[in-house]
Amino acid sequence: MRSRRGRAAIATLAVVLALTSGCSFGPPGPDQAGTAPNLPGPSVAATASASPGGEQEIAVTVLAKGLEVPWGIAFLPDGSALVTERDTARILRVGPGSDADGLQVSEAARLTEVRASGDGGLLGIAVSPRYATDKTVFVYYSTSTDNRVGKLVLGKLVQPIVTGIPRSAQQNGGALAFGPDGFLYAGTGDGTPAGSQAQDPKNLGGKILRMTTAGKPAPGNPVKTSLVWSSGHRNVQGLTWDKTKRMFATENTQPQFSELNVVQKGKNYGWPKADGAGTAKKFTNPLAAWPTADSSCGGVAALETLVATACLLGKRIYMIDVTGNGTVLGKAQELLTGKYGRLRALVAAPDGSLWVSTSNQEDAGEPDPEDDRLIRLVFSDGGAGRS
Predict the structure, then answer these.
(1) CA-CA-CA-CA torsion for 121, 122, 123, 125, nearest 10 degrees?
(2) What is the pLDDT along the chain (387 residues), one digit of tens a residue?
(3) What distance in Å separates the CA atoms of residue 183 and residue 185, rounded to the nearest whole number?
(4) Around Cβ 212, how many Cβ atoms within 10 Å?
(5) Which of 55, 90, 217, 327 is the most exposed place for a label (fewest CB within 10 A)?
(6) How many distinct structural domains can be found in the chain?
(7) Does any domain span residue 56?
(8) What is the CATH number of the domain that holds 212?
(9) Within a domain: residue 309?
(10) Structural domain for 180, as ranges
């Protein structure tokens, strides 16, 4: 899946969409990632719903345009966002400044080590929890022979800390995020038609890895000499945690179903023997699963009791309400279905809003003149996303 073309223009657009949902969102918790950037506002203000289960409005603002396959999003302490472009190998800085056209976009780094092809390239990005002092960011990227996790100070060369993650035309994984325990997690892809790597405990493919910032196995891993936290994955492209420190991951490009999993230490999620729920009882079932044609989900984010995931083939966001004991309340709600095309990255911003990226500048997409875009969602109920 290659990039179609590049653009540099940025602008804003705002619409208000109605969503039928029983979810409720309180004010965002203490900010650990930074302050909100100086955001352009929606042209129409959303009105909160007064009744649970009623109509909730969501303000949608296009923050930036003309990007090329934006894959990962992470926030700096000043409220600006770092955004990776898969095929150009650029790290873009978005905000915190803005002008009449939207948030300012500039190139923060370009990684010459990256070799982009298929769904490989410059993928996930995570900001060091100690960024204020170490100025370090972490990236997941593809070379011609493998996938790697590396660290860098913006403007300097990347230093690989994990190498040898299997590389293939597709199913390269790429999710990267710091957990609430302070350790770095990476989601990898199996990358083989038969799924032979996901069940091999000695292979890094088809796994979620947990590591120190030096790329070593983190204390408390299932096997103390191994990076592997969980196994049996097809293609992990999204990781997040909710306020209870429960971990969620997306499963992308399985033939039948795209999954949203609750990830637990040492669990096996079944690929290639399991695809969706109930297909192999000895493996861990997903929290939710949708037919691949309606989903193929990438990024995932959590806000209060809501867990949301952005979908490529489905061209929508699925949102589910997860109770304290881990069960799904009601049916999944849909947002932005077909309105912006393929959706990939999805993250919770420091101000409690959601940021989502489109992925139309690739062979499977149908880009319009504004693609690719970064979009901000603000929920009217409970004040999420207030700035």
Answers:
(1) 170
(2) 555 544 333 333 334 444 433 333 333 333 333 444 555 544 333 332 323 344 568 899 999 999 999 999 999 999 999 999 999 999 999 999 998 778 999 999 999 999 999 999 999 999 999 999 999 999 999 999 999 999 999 999 999 999 999 999 999 999 999 999 999 999 999 988 888 899 999 999 999 999 999 999 999 999 999 999 999 999 999 999 999 999 999 999 899 999 999 999 999 999 999 998 876 678 999 999 999 999 999 999 999 999 999 999 999 999 999 999 999 999 999 999 999 999 999 999 999 999 999 999 998 899 999 999 999 999 876 444 433
(3) 7
(4) 14
(5) 327
(6) 1
(7) no
(8) 2.120.10.30
(9) yes
(10) 64-333
Q: Locate 358 and state its tokens.
A: 């489109």
State the residue for tokens 């009791």.
Answer: 305
The tokens for 32 are 């650990």
Side chain identity at residue 305, one-letter code: T
